[in-house]
Amino acid sequence: MARIVSLGSALQDIYLIDHDDFAGSKVGNIEKLEQINIGSKVDIDRISFEVGGGGTNSAVTFARHGHEAIFLGNVGVDPAGQAVEELLNDEGVDTSYIVHPKNAKTGVSVVLLDTKSGERTILTCRGASARFYNLDENDLDLIKPDWLYVTSLRGDLETNLRFFEKAKELGCKIMFNPGKMELQEKKKLLGLLEDVDVLLLNKAEAAEIVPGKILEELLSHLSAYVKTVIITTGSMGAIATDGKETYRFGIYEDIPVKDTTGAGDSFGSGFLAHLAAGNSFKDSLIFGAANSTSVVSKLGAKNGILYGDTDLHPMPIQRIS
Q1: pTM (predicted TM-score)
Q2: Does residue 82 sit in helix, strand or coil?
Q3: Domain map of the chain by residue range?
Q4: Is 20 exposed, middle or buried (0-12, 13-18, 19+ CB in 10 A)?
Q5: Residue 266 phi, psi (nearest 5)
Q6: How far, in Å, CA of 21 to CA of 44, rounded?
Q7: Closest to 135 in 3D by CA, of 63, 190, 186, 70
Q8: Dihedral (Cα; 123, 16, 261, 150), 10-degree rounding
Q9: What digits encode the pLDDT tens for the residues 98-129?
Q10: CATH topology assigned to domain 3-10+53-107+129-320
């Protein structure tokens, strides 16, 4: 198995769950939350406390797959931070490289979950996970990871660059799943991609940084920067290439969606967890799809994360030229 560092955010997710008050209504092409009157009191069905954040979500996937998983990020010294660290420790994730910034509270998200549709509205105060410049890339010298898995660092491409250069110096491979704030600096982002081994984006994100309207065009243009590229389209599946094989595939299983939180994290980390365990590119894509499907079938970003020995059934996947 591999030693994998997850670099990213850590949050406590507080779910407010209801069957009708959080339903949306469409205004043009935008669906808005308009069922709650300002100044009113709203009775909800239940509340649930979970742990989220792209860095912790991916770390748990790697640990459940049997890898040596290390989380590197900022967590406050407070009850929310204690909940984050307790969960990671229980899952077997190495938390010894967590940084506790002075006077910073752990980030918290309040998730308004509509149980009818599985859609959610998230109100986030990122707290300690609002910044990453204080993290030290020299920690990688001590860890000596095989892979560095990086989710959004809130547009802090300078920190990305420091960690990417250190990873390459150590011979460590990089998988990168940038967020919307990284995409806002297209030129700098494209410059970073020369160090990336696996790039994960959704279709809209891919269209922001390279020309093209259809998946095959976007994949071709991104492949000029990164050898292995995966572009997801939600319920429409994904397309992926490793420079040798290219696959188009749908969702793993058509099941009722309870909560879409963590769907992207679970796909990307599920793919890498399986690949780093020595499995084929195709089988790793299938595991990523299965992991994402399992996660959205349960409440929270972690409850549905699969273990490495989970038996999978066949799914629609086609090799294309």
Answers
A1: 0.94
A2: helix
A3: 3-10+53-107+129-320
A4: exposed
A5: -70, -35
A6: 8
A7: 70
A8: 50
A9: 999 999 999 999 999 888 777 788 999 999 99
A10: UDP-N-acetylmuramoyl-L-alanine:D-glutamate ligase (3.40.1190)
